[in-house]
Amino acid sequence: MKVKEIYKTLDYGPAPESDKAALEFLASRGNKFDQYINGKWKKPNSKKYFDSVNPANKTKLAKIAEGNEKDVDDAVKAAKKALPGWVKIGGHARARYLYAIARQIQKHSRLFSVLESMDNGKPIRETRDIDIPLVARHFYHHAGWAQLMETDLKDYKEIGVIGQVIPWNFPLLMMAWKIAPAIATGNCIVLKPAEFTSLTALLFAEICDQIGLPPGVVNIVTGDGKTGAAIVEHPDVQKIAFTGSTEVGKIIQRSTAGSGKKLSLELGGKSPFVVFEDADLDSVVEGIVNAIWFNQGQVCCAGSRLLVQESVAEKLYKKIRNRMEKLRVGDSLDKGIDIGAIVDKSQLETITKLVAKGVKEGGKLWQPSWSCPTSGYFYPPTMFTEVAPSSYISQEEIFGPVLVSTTFRTHKEAVKLANNTRYGLAASIWTENINLALDVAPQIKAGVCWINCTNVFDAAAGFGGYRESGYGREGGREGLHEYIKLKSESKLSNKPFTRKRVSAKSNGKHDLAMPDIDRTLKMYIGGKQARPDGGYSLEVTNPSGDYLAEVSLGNRKDIRNAVEAARKNNKWAGMVGHKKAQVLYYLAENLILRKEEFATRIASMTECSMAAALKEVDMSIDRIYTYAAWADKYDGHVHHTAHRNVTIAMPENIGVMAIVCPNDFPLLGFISTVIPAITMGNNVVVVPSETSPLSATDFYQLLETSDVPAGTVNIVTGYKEELADTLAKHYDVDGMWYFGTKEGSKQVELFAAENMKRTWVNFGKYRDWQDREMGEGELFLRKASQIKNIWIPYGA
Amino acid sequence: MAKTKASQNGVAATKKKSQNSRERNAGIPFDPDLINGLNINRSAVERRGATLATRRSVKKNYQAAWLLKAIGFIDLTTLAGDDTRGNVIRLCAKAQSPVRQDILEALGMADANITTGAICVYHNFIKDAREALGNSGVPIAAVSTGFPAGHIPLKEKLKQIELSVKAGADEIDIVISRWMVLNSDWKALYKEVKACREACGNARMKTILATGEIPTLTKVAKASWVCMMAGSDYIKTSTGKEPVNATLPVSLVMTRCIREYYELTGIKVGFKPAGGIRTAKQAIAWMILIKEELGNEWLDPYLFRFGVSSLLGDIERQLEHHVTGRYSASFRHPLGGTTSY
After folding, report:
1. Is B82 a catalytic residue?
2. Which ipTM value was assigned to this complex?
């Protein structure tokens, strides 16, 4: 094009970033890559390779090894072998390695950016200005955690061999999010990049080699879902970290259920983008561009659901359409485009199909007047308006550049619509009213809330979901806990910690021969004593088989009622920490008054000595004090993120939690599990000790007299495993703790996968509830809460 | 690459048919409702500002064409205490032939009659400039109304304008009373700007907000609206004398106001960033901003100007580099009115 012509049109013209260095790199490796195992490049056992394709022009970039179970096994063995040395080398040495990795990434940043862009189809601007800088930042940040681990996290240790499976939308960034915290804290990893996008992970492996990272610390195995499954199922892997679809996340949870493997899952989303009438609408439009037209909309936390206040909806839609008209779709290496290529033909077909479905459902479709290039897999920016929340495209993740919008009338309705989803990854809230913003943010069920911004990430802040968007956090202090465990976990036992049994007589005044007044021990639901729905009772005996009493035999309907009561109670969660502490102290006070009675009950149920029973009551009071103390102290952080904003990491309650108590220590086991859960603001449905439930049924009298709001603690007695199953399957239970058998633990994890409830089970391992290290502490509070990061940029 | 084709449901069809684009902004009655609800989010605007020029790139022949176009947007300016007839005449000569002929020939643009958009001087040099520019068609802009601080009585301001118009100024760059913005006395600001507009007569009026002295972007937006309502032909960021002059975030806010004013009234108001724009790269960033936020129609000297003194020098060097493939040197290009480059 001649200068004279351009002078008239003022078009942008092509602005290609050179692919020369990347092509040379690929050619120098023969356009063929093996797997990086134990510090060496290994041919796949399958002897097979598959193609990696540039989706912007459909050309083949390289052949990638197809790893199988044997390759995975080699990699896991290498990681296992490297582990002791990597732990022993210490935090400072690990910090040096991570720092070296960060530096190398910066030194080769353009090669990484170009290669990533070619492999994935995303714009070079995004890899150059966003992905790669964030990758380097993640390694720098975690080099710091490696350095600090021995002092700041001295009660913790590594988990061991970690299997990591990552998606294709942010190949290198997701890899950094997985690898940096894992190796910083002394773990060794086996990582599988997505089959569409393995190249930058392999370039990364070369960097690990260059800096002399000990062999086996980082192993990269390539392949498809089968290779991933081999990692997930490998018995020597202690933890799986996965980012990908909710569907696969559930498969992973079911497959690892009961194995004792730790899991962190970062899954899909249908994140709300909420616009109030007082927002800066022109800035909102740019927010939407960053929310749904960033990375072709192939972003798990994409603001794909626009909720806009009715009063400004038409005005905003018009602005969005004008903006869409100016977006540019094209080759990923063109420096002047906004939207690149969809990763693969299959994904393009999925998007096309879902958009057609949206049109069929009656959504009003809008696309810009220009057409996409046909050289690769491109899809234009798309907006649906007048879409009902019930429509398929409002509910399901499209994972493409498609915005679905609907309107709301009030902020309360906005919150309802925002939460009207199975997902809960992120939310973006736009208003110039800080009161409104800070009112709405905590009410939206999402792990990340961006106020007047969107898709902002940083290594210092946690990222991860609520509900079916998965669990666990990546980044920040909260993210570290996915890769470390308490040293005291080694104290857990395969057998229950039991007390010596003594004869009833030696307990003095407790005389079983003396007939008692028959008391009706009911269940406790919604602040009321409740008779069992089935009308049956369960006999309670002591270990010698002597009859003690009868408790209600709860069934699934009682569970249903209890969960409903827990869901209905909104008083407890809304109370400030100080007020919760007051209620807990009051509980302790009332327990002290009835110390003898509770001890007598414990002794009669367990046949322990009266002294031991009194000790259990004392410890229970002590434990209540512990959590009353924590109630106004277990608070969040303000993270040092690399932007001008306040990033608040706030522990929030999980919601309705089910707690299946241990059988041993009828009172202390109940207190040690129920009290931390309610301290964090959860409402709980408790299944007390099946063998010794009477301490719990006695306890509801204390609940009634200690100002605990109705529905906060609901107690259903009966057969533990049966009730646990019902709870684990219940869609309206958000979290579940289970202290029981190995088999029962497996069942809970298996059933919980369906709605991704946060579970904490004991895999048949026992705690000594009398040991403070095992029986109480921040671990319990962490398990009873989830971190929400709220990003609040500022500037007058 | 994205291609533009006839729009069916796109912007072009839905936009109001504009009147003759040479029509001036006569202003509209003061309407507080148009400014009361304005709210600008600084962080979000800065984010957009920071990525405007990273999302677009103009290379090779495109860059050369854009830079030539940029020259036509320049208000070639000298506003110094030591200005004399001599350097003003030199400035006027530069405005009429801003690029070396051999460079223009190499670019195939020898016959394009490229001049700067205008020259901009103090009142006292209007007469000299008039003589120097002759029939070249390059307009003369004069700064006025107690430039740069504006702390003189309104009566004096109006008199200054009248004198400059009479002396032959085609365009008048006025400064607003910043204290009215700080005190949110929008009605007073409206009245004053309207009075200036009337005093301008046929001369086109550029209204300088001095955004470096306006504390918030929200007030920048409100001041932009008031000045457009009062009939400004252009709104302009700065005098060049404030500690902070034209920035992309401020320009974003002002251009977005211009867009909304156009959507409301069908009238296109011009925009002039001034101060601090010294490099070809910056000039292109601003042109990208205009193209993205307002569209190609605004990439027209009638609606867009740069208030600059040294930008032209960098553009000349870039153009020579484009033609020869060698990096240029400033002494290879004829001097203009200032010796600051």
Report:
1. no
2. 0.95
